[in-house]
Amino acid sequence: MELPKPRFVPPLDESFRPAVLAQTTFERAAAAAGGQVLALAVERTEGHVSRFETVVLPPGHPDFADNLWFVERLAKFLLWQRGGWRLHVGGPPAIGAHLAAHYRPDGPRAFDADLMGRQVYGRPFEVVVSDLGAVPPASETTQALGRHLDGCRIGFDLGASDRKSSAVIDGAAVFSVEVPWDPRRFSNPQAHFDGINDSLKRAAEHLPRVDAIGGSAAGIYVDNQVRVGSLYRGVAPADFEARVKDLFLQLKAAWGGVPFEVVNDGEVTALAGSMSLGVNGILGVALGSSEAGGYVTPAGTITDWLNELAFCPVDYSPTAPVDEWSGDAGCGVQYFSQQAVGRLIPVAGLPIDPELALPEQLLAVQAAMAAGDRRAAAIYETLGIYLGYGLAHYATFYELQHVLVLGRVTSGPGGEILVERAQAVLAAEFPELAQRLAVGLPDEQSRRVGQAIAAASLPRIDGGP
Question: Cys-Cys crosslink for 450: which of 15, 100, 211, 272, Cβ 3.0 to 4.6 Å?
């Protein structure tokens, strides 16, 4: 099927083919051809299941093979957005067989299967092919997150280029500090421990006591254990199991066993937005070293979804850039992060040394932007168009009322261009969505302090509210 060209063409990426346009065009064509319902369900721990239904071309249709590619992209999105160790496929058997082959240990999605199964959920990844009626129904769960502001707390945030910490007393930040670091190069787990502990000590110096510690970090965390994280990519697998997996439990012990919680940075981003704006139904999208996502439901709770949007496909172009970690093409990390900026610099023609680390490349682009360089503006216009179509795709999978866009990439005047372009795409291409979805940037105070306060609010102090 010919992929639809967007009305807004990114100035630095004419081959961009938004997933939202391709997927909806395919589904309309399938429905017009007497399409057949197909159900995908991803199963997590404790029997929690997310189910998604679509329509595909019926068996015998001359373009039936188009189903295979479109459903594979949809399944990939669901796995990384919702998470799961088992994928149920109900519909035409050939589609299920295709997905099962993709997720074998020697298949194209072997990375995804190993990470979801062994690393995140601790069990072999499975694809179950069945009739439509045998696909399990949805069984979701939500819970409250954070919003505890009593006492003397430390909040911290770990990124790939800096670590932040704040001292918080009864919900007010009395001290904040930002320290550059590059943890992905650390091969010794002790370097992670020492760096984080240093940030905690800096904040503690400004508190009369430490009642609780809360933090956010890039990666997947379950019960304060590190399951997956690009921050720890330099650590050998054996050392990861021995030292990194329980890193935050070790830090808790070092601080006398005070209430201690760490969660994915995207979740804290969404929580910070909800707390500062006083709204719910909010998706936080952080454009940093990678792309982080977090979601607060309209009821003000969080789900047990992964929200790892960096690995979710947003571009269906056959020439889409490939993620160097997963080996897949068209995924969010190459469109909503410092990696996206680095990829677009040579296309824009900016004379920035490609040997510089990505944070330094971003600073150079932001300096050019501040100087009025049109080439830098083209980078942000491209990112903004990506974002507009990306948010429309995300709205297929989330119940959204607000989107908060933040991260290092959005700092400075470029961030305003990025959001303005995204809003223009939504207004013209998806007017109904644009009317009910508010997209914006946090103010500078919220960017610097809101995340730390939200992180600090994660643990509940025994006996507290």
Answer: 272
Please check whether residue 303 is in contact with residue 297, taking contact to mean a CB–CB distance below 8 angstroms.
Answer: yes
Determine the residue type at 213: I
Q: What is the pLDDT of residue 48?
A: 96
Q: How far apart are CA 156 and CA 216, in angstroms?
A: 6
| Residue among 44, 96, 10 nearest 348 (CA) | 10
User: Torsion angle, CA of 425/426/431/432, rounded to 10 degrees?
Assistant: 160
Tokens read off for 381 = 């216009």
CA dist 284 and 295 (Å) reads 6
Q: In 3-state terms, the chain is what percent helix, strand and coil (to 5)?
A: 45, 20, 35
Q: What is the pTM of this model?
A: 0.91
- Please check whether residue 22 lies inside any domain of the structure: no
> What is the share, in percent, of the chain residues with pLDDT greater than 90?
84
Residue type for position 192: H
Tally the C-alpha atoms within 13 A of residue 91's C-alpha that lie toward its C-beta.
26
The letter for the amino acid at 224 is N
pLDDT reported for residue 273: 87
DSSP-based three-state secondary structure for 321: coil
Decide if 388 contacts 266 (C-beta within 8 A): no
- Rounded distance between C-alpha atoms, residue 125 and residue 278, angstroms: 39
Residues 31-78 have pLDDT tens digits of: 999 999 999 999 998 899 999 999 999 999 999 999 999 999 999 999
Q: CA of 86: how far to CAs of 55, 100, 116, 183, 462, in Å? A: 21, 11, 9, 32, 37
Structure tokens given for 139 = 């069984």
Instruction: Judge whether 4 lies within some domain.
Output: no
Task: Give the 3-state secondary structure of residue 126.
Answer: strand
Pick from 119, 140, 161: which residue ends a domain?
A: 140
Q: Are residues 244 and 273 in the same domain?
A: yes
Angle subtended at Cα 425 by Cα 10 and Cα 439, rounded to the nearest 5 degrees: 115
Digit-coded pLDDT (tens) for 192-235: 999 999 999 999 999 999 999 999 998 889 889 999 888 998 99
Residues 168 and 186 in one domain: yes
C-alpha atoms less than 13 angstroms from C-alpha of 401 in its C-beta half-sphere: 13
